[in-house]
Amino acid sequence: MSAGTLDTATYAHLLAQVRDAGLLRRRHGYYAVVITANLLAFAGAWVGFAFLGDSWWQLLIAALLAVLFAQLAFVGHDAGHKQIFRTRRPNDAVGVVHGGLVGMSYQWWVHGHNRHHANPNHEEHDPDLDISALAFTAGQASGKRGLLRWMAKHQALLFFPLITLEGLNLHVSGVGAVWRGETRARRLEGALLSAHIAGYLTAVFIVLSPGVAVLFIVVHQALWGVYMGCAFAPNHKGMPTVTGDPPDFLRRQVLTSRNIRGGRLTDFVLGGLNYQIEHHLFPNMPRPHLRRAQPIVEEFCREHGIPYTQTGLLDSYRQVLGHLHRLGAPLRTATST
């Protein structure tokens, strides 16, 4: 038996284990509750916004909306992986609606995210490594010039300030993709994004005075960006990167991913992304099943000698920042000599 056939058989054995445990079955009831709760909370936040009026207390509503935007985005993420329904069309319907609610293009995001899943941490093929403001590999760091080189030198310090812009990036990139016709359902997404932008800005500037309105938008969008960045960054940043021909599917997903330990509160806050290894191995596994799959996958990796990375949330940020700091070190040294 060839190495490739053996690797395929190894993954097939793990897949059989999780399937036999019922972990690939849809959880329609779970998602019905989550979606309903999110939509009620989202509507309630905007009702509270209207009743509170022109007040600095609206900044608390802005913070609440940042959390709710992230929770809605997590459902869109699950829909993009067909975790909610077995077929694409109903998942896409859920995803497009949730994308419209938070002002981002679901179809644009799914296209890029699928490329990431196919080649996680691959230096040539993973779009999540192609972020001009940061360097995730030594080659990227050494190739920076001008302002971007200065940013790479100090990127560990700049990381959290930079991710305040992630929400804005999701808006702008999605709108740009729809405008250029790079997505399916262009007219529908264009209408939803237009309605979101018009409705959001109209509500904010009608209810609030100009100064409070601007600060409300800044706080809301910045906190949403931080939330999304803090949820996604621990998954792969600081883990090994890949060049050339990637390893087999099983190792490609496990070796480049990092799990975050924690209980059900962590599961909720991170939208299930804390089980990143299991999620990458079984992208269509419903979110509530990832917790049950984790010990199965960890034991399987131990038996087959495959490194399985798991750490606490705060330590994951320490690892990410340490990785960014080390990549910037040669640039700082070059400046000082």
TrEMBL record:
Q: Does the keyword Metal-binding apply?
A: no
Q: Does the keyword Cell membrane apply?
A: no
Query: Per the record, GO CC terms?
Result: membrane
Which InterPro entries does the record associate with it?
A: FA_desaturase_dom, Fatty_acid_desaturase
- Per the database record, which ranges form the Fatty acid desaturase domain? 55-311
Q: Which domain of life is it from?
A: Bacteria
* One term of GO molecular function: oxidoreductase activity, acting on paired donors, with oxidation of a pair of donors resulting in the reduction of molecular oxygen to two molecules of water
The residues that cross the membrane are 29-49, 55-76, 156-177, 197-219
Gene Ontology biological process terms from the UniProt entry: lipid biosynthetic process
Which keywords annotate this record? Membrane, Transmembrane, Transmembrane helix
> What is this protein's name?
Fatty acid desaturase
Provide the species name: Actinokineospora auranticolor
